[in-house]
Amino acid sequence: MEKHFDIIIIGAGPAGLIAAARASQLGNRILVLEKMAQAARKLRITGKGRCNITNTAPLSEFVKCIHPEGKKLRPAFSRFFSKNLIDFFAEINIPTKEERGSRIFPLSDDANVVADALISYCKTQKVEFLLNAEVQDISISDEPAKNLRITINNPKQQFSAHSIIIATGGLSYPATGCTGDGYKFAKQTNHLIIPTRPALVPLRVNHPKVSELMGLSLKNVTASLWVEGKKMQSEFGEMLFTHFGLSGPIILTLSRLAVDSLNEKKKVQIQIDLKPALDDQKLDQRLLREIDEHGKMKISSYLKLLLPGLLAPFCAQELGFDSEKQANTISALERKKLRVWLKNLVFNVVGHTGFKEAIITAGGVSISDINLETFESKKVENVYFAGEVLDFDADTGGYNLQIAFTTGWLAGEAAAKQVSGSR
Question: 353, 378, 393: which is the final residue of a domain?
Answer without folding.
Answer: 353
